[in-house]
Amino acid sequence: MSRFILVTALALSGTLLQADGLADLKAALKALPQASKVSARIEEESREQEGGKDHIERRTVRLEDGPGGTRILEDSRLPAPAGKSNPDTSNAKKGDRPFEGVLRPAAGLLEQLDKARLVEERPETREGQPVRRLKLVLEMKLEAEAKSKLKKAVHEATVWIGADGLPIAMDQQIEIKARVLLVATVWTKVDIHIRYQRNQGRLLVLEERSDVQGSAMGKSFSAHETTRCSVLP
């Protein structure tokens, strides 16, 4: 091998080793500035089916989130006191952060990515923008007793990141099959689809959809949950 080819090969290999989308994603999440104040409306809908029966719940919340915590201004689950348009939220503790996974998803993402393993990275185009598509294997956090009963355990994710390393969207697939009571089997599969948004340097969830299906003790069940977050002026 000529000296030129050897130098070129080494240079290219160094570039490839540095092009680690998972490391870039972690670094970008850690580098996010302190979350500024934001007003938002969160809409939730859940549908559960078990034993041939459907159960539907809906909730709409208007809130403010900032360095001091989260303040819920309106909640469709809470009746407004007489003479007031908003529910009484004065008993909320300072620093509480309900809906943290929607309003501040970076911390939860970093926890999931702590022991993640990158299995594939490739360039793609999403919504007309160049992105990097990362395929990851995530850690399945289970207690030792639960692990001893597992027949199958899968936790995988696909993340699309922009030029700044921050996530644009993320899909997760979780599947667990376990043995219980010697002969019975419990099976659960969860598909999660998340889209993110940016607001004044802040990362928030735009939409999250979760589909759950499974069976236990001869009975099947399924559930679908959708959460949408709209930033208010």
UniProtKB/TrEMBL annotation:
Q: Where is the signal peptide?
A: 1-19
Keyword terms of this UniProt record: Signal
Instruction: List all Basic and acidic residues biased stretches.
Output: 40-65
Provide the protein name: Uncharacterized protein
User: What are the start and end residues of every segment in region (Disordered)?
Assistant: 37-98
Keyword field contains Signal:
yes
